[in-house]
Design a protein that fits this description.
Layout (H helix, E strand, L loop, with lengths): L2 H16 L6 H6 L5 E8 L3 E2 L5 H12 L10 E3 L9 E2 L4 E8 H31 L6 E3 L9 H10 L13 E3 L1 H6 L3 H11 L6 E5 L2 H9 L4 E5 L3 H17 L7 E4 L7 H5 L5 E3 L2 H4 L6 E7 L2
Parallel strand pairs: 6-11, 7-8, 8-9, 9-10, 10-11
Antiparallel strand pairs: 1-5, 1-12, 2-4, 3-5
Helix pairs in contact: 1-3, 3-4, 4-5, 8-9
């Protein structure tokens, strides 16, 4: 089991513990422990689905936490073959059907919906941004602006929406940002130090805000450029400056990324500058939860 899987397992378990799902007094006092039921998860809006794979894991973890009789008897999760994470669905469409002990369904209902609503909201928002720049060749990136503890799942939701993951944490890549530059002696010094001290295989990306900073980054060996808080016209000029540099230095490659102030309404104007990537923090820090419900009925 890799670290991402381990982290996801811990997140799902913590969600059940936080809600004290194994101590659900209302359900325990009102529902027959032998009752079985069918739960249908429904999309209440057009959306991109994300989080289906967590459903069985929630019930498996719940079985370890719960001591109530019958609460972890056999269960079945069924979804149509054409519905999986990353698929766009319509309002009213059934996403999954769960057959299980009624107590288990009721105790896990809220955590399942909370997670699916949040992740599907991110996937849906990401798809809107991806669709907005369709045909330009530019790719949409996420950022590290995530809810603490949920980053692995939120970045998975971005992938489900058609986006691309930037580095997942501070150990996953070198990105020299404005504060590193101001504290590290300027662009040239920071870039040279990073290149000299890095581990083999690490790429040095540099955030720049002006043509002068861009020239310093290029001249001192930067291997990727982040164009920060620029207008589309400034990004286009910077891309042209980079292309001229590469023409004079054959053999070098320099992926470009635009970031800062980019919204759904203006993202296409940025993509049309020829930049390779556009990073959008709003994918994770501002996505609205998708509207999803669970309908539970007793089995005959």
């Amino acid at each position: 089991m890799d670290w991402k899987t381990t982290r996801i397992e811990a997140l799902l378990e913590q969600a059940l513990i936080e809600d004290r799902a194994a101590s659900d007094w209302t359900t325990n006092l009102t529902i027959d422990p032998e009752l079985r039921a069918t739960a249908t998860i429904l999309a209440r809006q057009e959306m991109v689905v994300c989080g289906l794979g967590a459903i069985p894991r929630f019930f498996e973890i719940f079985a370890r936490l719960d001591a109530r009789p019958n609460a972890h008897r056999r269960y079945e999760v069924v979804s149509h073959p054409e519905i999986f994470d990353g698929v766009r669905v319509h309002e009213g469409q059934a996403l999954a059907v769960i057959r299980h002990n009624a107590r288990a369904l009721l105790s896990c209902e809220r955590v399942i919906l909370n997670l699916m609503q949040h992740l599907s909201g991110i996937a849906t928002a990401t798809r809107r941004y991806v669709d907005a720049i369709d045909g330009t060749g530019t790719r949409v990136l996420d950022t590290r602006k995530t809810i603490p503890g949920l980053r692995v799942l939120e970045k998975y939701a971005v992938l489900s929406g058609g986006g691309t993951n930037h580095r997942i944490d501070l150990a996953s890549g070198i990105l020299i940002k404005n504060n590193h530059i101001s504290l590290g002696g300027g662009v040239a010094t920071a870039v040279r130090n990073a290149i000299e001290r890095r581990k083999k295989g690490q790429r040095v990306q540099v955030e720049v805000r002006t043509p002068v900073e861009l020239k310093d980054a290029l001249d001192n060996g930067a291997e990727a450029i982040l164009l920060d808080n620029m207008t589309p016209a400034q990004v286009a000029a910077s891309v042209a400056q980079i292309k001229a540099f590469l023409a004079a230095n054959p053999g070098r490659t320099l992926p470009t990324e635009a970031s800062g102030g980019i919204k759904l309404e203006n993202i296409r104007s940025y993509a049309e500058t020829g930049v390779d990537f556009i990073s959008v923090g709003a994918l994770t820090h501002s996505a609205s939860a998708a509207d999803i419900s669970m309908r539970i009925v007793a089995e005959e």
